[in-house]
């Protein structure tokens, strides 16, 4: 029987703490998951990026993609170097896909917009792929979404005027492969346009 007065010996390297993912410190009170090829480490890193960056940083970047690193750092309360490093983390992780200018359609003469609903004749893989590739090749289709149920697709089309839209419809849209039916409706007004994703 073990003497209760003697301390219990523990094997080297053993602890009572749960096995957390190793972390590296990155400033006071902050830690980021260590870079690892494991799925757990990748998940931990995505979780960290979402928790640390989304509440403060992403809204600023989404609202104004031309913010300088210095301006962004001031908004989120970081020094420039950590801010720049974490912004690059967001880009590398795919949370920030890119930067673009939001153009006023009226300024470039493309303020006539139509919504086109497309129903396919068949929905086999070849038909879907061929249709989507053909849609992507039309520059005036500014957005295309596949839907559940009918219709199968929603297309947003921007042209100069009704005559230009009719020409596009006859020459390109009506000839899209695999299409059974197209229904169009004209946009009267954009109430919410290019809004950033909610927090």
How would you describe this protein?
There is one protein chain. The chain has 2 domains: 23-93, Winged helix-like DNA-binding domain superfamily/Winged helix DNA-binding domain (Arc Repressor Mutant, subunit A, Orthogonal Bundle), CATH 1.10.10; 105-186, 2-Layer Sandwich (Alpha-Beta Plaits), CATH 3.30.70.920. It is of the alpha+beta class and 199 residues long. Helix content is 33%, strand content 18%. Residues 10-36 have low confidence and may be disordered. It contains 6 helices and 6 strands. It has a 4-stranded antiparallel beta sheet. Strands 1-2 form a two-stranded antiparallel ribbon. The protein has helices at 39-53, 57-63, 69-76, 80-93, 125-136, 162-171, and strands at 23-25, 31-33, 112-120, 141-146, 153-159, 179-186. It is extended, with a radius of gyration of 27 Å.
**Terminus-to-terminus distance:** 60 Å
Provide the number of structural domains. Answer: 2
CATH homologous superfamily of the largest domain - what is it?
A: Lrp/AsnC effector binding domain/regulation of amino acid metabolism (RAM) domain
Level-1 CATH class name of the largest domain? Alpha Beta
Keyword list:
alpha+beta, two-stranded antiparallel ribbon, Alpha-Beta Plaits, single chain, Arc Repressor Mutant, subunit A, 2 domains, four-stranded antiparallel sheet, 199 residues, 6 helices
């Amino acid at each position: 029987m073990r003497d209760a007065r003697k301390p219990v010996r523990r094997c080297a390297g053993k602890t009572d703490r749960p096995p957390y993912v190793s972390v590296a410190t990155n400033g006071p009170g902050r830690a980021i998951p260590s870079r690892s090829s494991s799925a757990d480490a990748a998940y931990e890193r995505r979780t960290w990026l979402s928790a640390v960056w989304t509440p403060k940083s992403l809204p600023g970047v989404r609202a104004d993609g031309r913010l300088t690193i210095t301006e962004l750092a001031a908004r989120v309360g970081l020094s420039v170097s950590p801010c720049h490093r974490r912004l690059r983390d967001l880009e590398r992780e795919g949370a920030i896909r890119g930067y673009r200018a939001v153009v006023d359609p009226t300024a470039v003469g493309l303020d006539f917009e139509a919504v086109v609903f497309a129903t396919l004749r068949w929905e086999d893989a070849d038909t879907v792929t061929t249709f989507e590739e053909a849609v992507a090749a039309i520059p005036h289709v500014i957005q295309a979404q596949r839907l559940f149920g009918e219709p199968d697709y929603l297309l947003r089309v921007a042209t100069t005027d009704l005559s230009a839209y009719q020409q596009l419809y006859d020459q390109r849209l009506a000839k899209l492969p695999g299409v059974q039916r197209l229904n169009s409706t004209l946009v009267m007004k954009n109430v919410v346009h290019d809004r950033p994703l909610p927090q």
